[in-house]
Amino acid sequence: MRVSLRSLAAAVLLAFAVAVSAPVLAQQPSSVNPTASSVKEQQLLEALRAGTPGTGTTLSGRITIPDQRAANLIQPQGQAWRVFHQGTMHWVGGIAILGMLAVLVAFYLFRGRIMIHKGPAGIRILRFTTFERLVHWMTAGCFLVLALTGLNITFGKYLLLPLFGEGGFHAVASLGKYAHNYLAWPFMLGLVFMFLVWVVHNIPNSIDMEWLKQGGGLLKPGVHPPAKKFNAGQKGIFWAVIIGGGLLSVSGFFLIFPATADGVLALQFWNIVHGLVAVLLIAIMIAHIYIGSVGMEGAADAMTSGEVDLNWAKEHHSLWVQEEASKGRINPGALGQPAE
Ligand code: HEM
User: Fold this and answer.
1) Domain boundaries, position 269
2) What residue ranges are annotated as transmembrane (predicted)?
3) Which terminus of the chain, N or C, has fewer Cβ atoms within 10 Å?
């Protein structure tokens, strides 16, 4: 009997609760907007600015798993990084690369190909050993693929995606990503060898000042400021490759192994360094490739056969020719009259 009285009381209470809540439920909108009353990103950011407890630079929640990074709800610096990544980076890259191409076209139209002023002597002298050329082409080959696949990461979705379609672009971009990650290693090795083999010829000295004062003789035909094995311009290229390549290596390492970086902020920093240095170095290397191939008669031989024409060497590296002769590497009879 006591049980049935309790059941009755419960039934009455339930009926009362339903009766009271029915009008409230009836007022609810028929279609529910689940985000209508949730906190917006903007509100969270404002709260963060007002000093809501977080970890200082991020807005954090409470979690029970060991990796505390997962507690971050919002990292406001990520917005600045996104503006760089989706905007500034495109502008800097576009201006640096297209600007360099425009300068080179203008230079070619104004100056034409830099010819061997006295014409080829027909006597070849060794400029780079097989090892030096191997090191050059290993580093250069890797750099070219790294540059193209890196540019694809930045510009591919605008340039290649419309051309190849989603399937084709996916194939190219995934292959490119693997190439980028794996060729970074022989590139770094090449940088180390390049540094060891050539650093001794790339220490700046007073001869470089004179070379720079005369604009490297680039603007006027027949002007050839003296230079040793490498002139001031080439020393600039060397140090750009070593310092720029070094920065790309360090920043790239953190991007391949993100857990080794000191958090998301550090990763964003390295990502910005990687992107900016890459596009600037690519622009510099475009100039190098131009002058080492179509821009100057006789230059490419140095990195293909390893031997250059004596008159080319006398015009562009007169002091190096003298050094080589004094070491007995050039037949003194072949030297004849110095080329300007
Ligand atoms: C198709 C691409 C390239 C061509 C045709 C080319 C050509 C040359 C030539 C002809 C030289 C010797 C210049 C001389 O005898 O005085 C040279 C030197 C050099 N190259 Fe390249 N190169 C290319 C790509 C690269 C790349 C991608 C890098 C670095 C990532 C690089 C780094 C260097 C350095 C550091 C030197 C020594 C300094 C200098 O001569 O400027 N090269 N290259």
Assistant:
1) 116-335
2) 91-110, 134-155, 182-200, 237-257, 269-291
3) N
